[in-house]
Amino acid sequence: MAQRQQHDIPALLHRLSDDILQSDDVDELLSLLHTLLGDEAACQQIVAAGGLPLLVQRLQSGASMAAKLGAGNLLTGIACKAPDLRPDVAAAGAIPAMLQLLHDAGRHEQQQADSVYLCVAPGIGALFEHSTADDRDAVLAAGHSLVLAAVRVLQLCSGPMPCKFAAGLVWELTDANEGLLAAAIAAGVVPALGTALRDSANNGQRGMPCHALAHLIAHSEPLAGEVVACGIVPDLVDALSGFGQSFGEQFGAAHAVCNLAKFRSQAVVDAGGIPALVQLLRRSPDGRAVQGCAGALANLGLTSSESTQAIAAAGGLAVLRRLARSRKFSGEEPAATPAHVRSKRLWQDKRPAALRRLRPGALLQASRVRSAHPECQRADWPAHRGTCKPA
Prior knowledge:
This protein has 25 helices and two strands. The chain has 391 residues and is an all-alpha fold. α2 packs parallel to α5 (65-81). The protein is elongated, with a radius of gyration of 24 Å. It starts with a helix and ends with a strand.
């Protein structure tokens, strides 16, 4: 099969460059290329053979919608499967060509429009971090259409890879843009992310849906309530338990549960969140996942004495005491790798206030606090330090 790929891909691209090809022949060649796009090695062959400019040209000026979609799906496949090649795909002009295809989608019936969304939203989601300033401006200008396209991809449950990058695109576009956030919510982004989270349970691709949910939850209590109402909390807790899976999956789940615990702590407790958080706190080698777990436990422990007792019963206080003496609370980050880029930016710029101010001793001290006045509630004890003190 490898020999067939080495022979067929350059030959097919050479035939595709023929300007006198009939429309049906172009569609067939693009379809054959797509069947050969099985792994990163095949993607590298397309790039090495000079296929990217050719595919962008076919995407821009294909004789038929099928040809445009064929070229677009190949570019999206390369961007999703080969992280090292994303700068090359972006530099070839894929983003403006995809945006033009999205602009034309409104002229077609729903089924064909869905095919456009499945091509464009994951592709731009994968390429966004490698885009030029002009491309970013164009993406933001088309933000409303892109948000709706990304939500539709999540609703179509088209597979873990498209859902991963569609969720990432939702996160990018709604960050600090209240208008696009409102559009995403109205389009049903929360239940759609919940569906993507469940469908990605067995392939280690839950990290980006978790991060997107964490970003949405952080914006308001009503969104946290919608996450609970859609039955997503057990899926987030399950993602915490996936030890040995991807880095982003556990960090994303811990981040989401940390934010959710600020608004809907009882839902986290009822879903078995405390044992899962303590278990990940014990075992995770990544300092950021540990910080997320500790932030979630702090939010839970400062809510009620029952939660604090449950954390202690699960062994959480003992783990926090041990970690307080380790380097995992120093704020140091592991060495950056391509897989860490998006999460590293989240840690630097988007981490919730609970993580920024957290100290291991806070939860430990909260477990010993007693109220000096009846109106002083445990959740408010830091604001009453003059009257609340360790027992």
